[in-house]
Amino acid sequence: MRYVLGIDAGGTKTRALLAEETGRVLGRGRGGGANLKTHGELEVEKVLHRVIEEAESEANAKPDAVALGIAGADRPEDHAVLRTILRRMGFRQRVLVTNDARVAFVAGSPSRVGLALICGTGSIAWGQNAAGEIARAGGWGWHLADEGSGFWIGARAVRAALRGADGRGPGTALAEAVREHFGIGNVEEMVRIVYDGEFPRHQIAMLAPRLAGAAAAGDAVAGGILDEAAQELAAAARSVRGRLRLDERPYDIVLSGGTFAAVPALAEAATALLAAPGATVRRLEEEPAMGAVKLAMEQLES
To answer: What pLDDT band is residue 38 in, cutting at 50, 70 and 90?
Structure first.
């Protein structure tokens, strides 16, 4: 019996699944975020080592092929760094490194024709057509883009709260949401939280469900931010759909990511915006790492 290892590494969490070559999962590993851009090579290696060791221990097996889907690693030089990390762990052959959107797509699209729209701490759309052509939109990181993502939503919630406190914008329930989320007495204390220590990117991203709650309660500012997030995510998906000419035949749209899971209203809005003839919008039900397992199974034949 041969074994495979599939890893899904995002900005907030990393999951590893060790399976038989049939796809039956024997071992699991769980860890924190692993993104070369935001965590650095050393931290990524630590996280990968931890989740791989945990999965191998539970399965009592070593993989013969590995597939790693990881956020923020689309350039050849990033892949080279990650392959070096995996080589240091003993994986020298039958290794595939790709982005996390691809593994979510493989996990959720039976035909592998269509696109994945990921909304977690960051965001990206990635797709493939029947000819094997690939396109992506977004995924440029929180400094440059990641529109519609958890961080994008949370950052706008904080800004709206500060604008309201200044009188430069309308009053909003987001001020209370920010105070409760960060455990502060007033929104002005956000200066200390943001500038006096490590930038709390993931904590800001976790504001998204509170914003959704304010929107559901009728707060116009929160509702506007949520609507804009859905529009931004849909724009990324439409870009991929158009460049790959996906509307020429039936195709899948796979929605995945922690923010979609935590904010169902956002997933529902994106689904409505992307409805089109021939499109099947699917919420990813199984772990994205299962897509990496499937890709690792294909590496056994290489």
So the answer is: confident
> C-alpha angle with apex 125: 116 to 69, nearest 5 degrees?
70
Give yes or no for a contact between 67 and 105, defined as CB atoms under 8 angstroms apart.
no
**Residue of 268, 243, 208, 267 whose CA lies nearest to 114:** 243
* Cβ count near 215 (within 10 Å): 22
Q: How far apart are CA 112 and CA 118, in angstroms?
A: 16
- pTM attached to this predicted model: 0.92
Q: Say if residue 302 is exposed, middle or buried (CB neighbours under 10 Å; 0-12, 13-18, 19+).
A: exposed
HSE-CB at 82 with a 13 A cutoff on CA atoms is 28
Calculate mean pLDDT across residues 31-54: 87
Task: Write out pLDDT tens, residues 193-243.
Answer: 999 888 899 999 999 999 999 999 999 999 999 999 999 999 999 999 999
CB neighbours of residue 301 within 10 Å = 8
- What is the token pair recorded at 295? 């890709």
3-state helix, strand, coil in the chain (%, to 5): 50, 20, 30
| Beta strand segments in the chain, E | 3-9, 13-20, 25-32, 65-70, 95-98, 114-119, 123-128, 134-138, 251-256, 279-283
Work out the angle between the directed axes of helices 174-182 and 220-244 (0-180°, nearest 10): 90
**All domains of the chain in start order, with CATH:** 3-98 (3.30.420.40), 110-284 (3.30.420.40)
Please give the Cα distance from 146 to 139 (Å, whole number): 6
Helix (H) or strand (E) holding 270: helix 264-274
Q: Which residue has the higher pLDDT, 77 or 129?
A: 129
- pLDDT tens, 130-139? 999 999 999 8
